[in-house]
């Protein structure tokens, strides 16, 4: 191998020198400073191809070197013992032929002073802006409340999902018909807790539209408490399994997503699952709820449960099934309303002072 000198590019700041050695795939590097002179020796691909390269630089003043090698080049940072600008790099006035300015990093002293001045102005302006924004003394309490709420809901729906999955593997299709009796208590708890998602926007804790949140929670609670909870005949039907399972599949990803959003953390996989799984699960859940409503219509007509009393001339009473039929018409004629509601409510559950958020 020939012994050659690589191209070296330099730039400085008040307290340090930057050297960039144009040597790729460097190996066997030997970099040292003796009596204020930098000695470099190493193998790599430079201007003359794959060879061994060396050079030495006698600095103008005392220094302390550090170096870092990458696949494309060798970077050497030299700290000045005294922080001030040098009029030249080397002790000798004549610049070595292999040395050239690094224009990508080159700044004059006035450039650096202007850069520091701009940064200081930006810092002062940011402080002024922050000082104008009133600090919320209860921000920590809001974060803690929202974090614990989402954590409790996540644990509740996780229990339902795991319980139903295990029973499905053990009992097969037989698990469809006793889903209500095995998981209803936990589902009652979770859906009663969900009422807080209607209260939170009223209290200003989250940036959620009140009406969409009310429609979402009310729709589920009608299915759970009225159709499943009040009609014993519905509790043994397979549709209960599909409604509960689809609900829990959505929530085991939604609530941890919100929970991490409260503390300013994001898992990309969880974010992808949260915004992707609802695309098939939301319409499937809507269909399962519609099936439950259709199966309950005749039962409400027979039992006259929740029927509205009417004068005898008008027929005696108005069955609650008519309200459910209206619900079905709205569900299938205005599907875009439900999709837009989901999109509007699918941001993290954070305090209003932190970031945009919502529920779905």
Protein model, in words:
There is one protein chain. The chain is an alpha+beta fold. The chain folds into two domains: 3-102, Immunoglobulin-like; 139-344, no CATH class. It has nine helices and eleven strands. Helix 2 (139-171) runs antiparallel to helix 6. The radius of gyration is 35 Å and the shape is elongated.
Question: What is the structure about, briefly put?
Answer:
The chain is an alpha+beta fold and 360 residues long. It has nine helices and eleven strands.
Features:
360 residues; alpha+beta; 5-stranded mixed beta sheet; 4-stranded mixed beta sheet; 9 helices; 11 strands; 18% strand; disordered C terminus
Return the domain count: 2
Low-pLDDT residue spans: 344-360
Shape descriptor reads elongated
Helix-strand makeup class:
alpha+beta
Q: Count the helices. How many?
A: 9
Span of the ends, CA to CA: 69 Å
- The total count of strands amounts to 11
Strand content: 15-25%
Major sheet attributes: 5 strands, mixed
How much helical structure, as a percent, in the residues?
Answer: 40-55%
Order of helices and strands: EEEEEEEEEHHHHHHHEEHH
Protein name: Very-long-chain (3R)-3-hydroxyacyl-CoA dehydratase
Domain CS: 3-90
Pfam families: PTPLA
Catalytic activity: a very-long-chain (3R)-3-hydroxyacyl-CoA = a very-long-chain (2E)-enoyl-CoA + H2O; (3R)-hydroxyhexadecanoyl-CoA = (2E)-hexadecenoyl-CoA + H2O
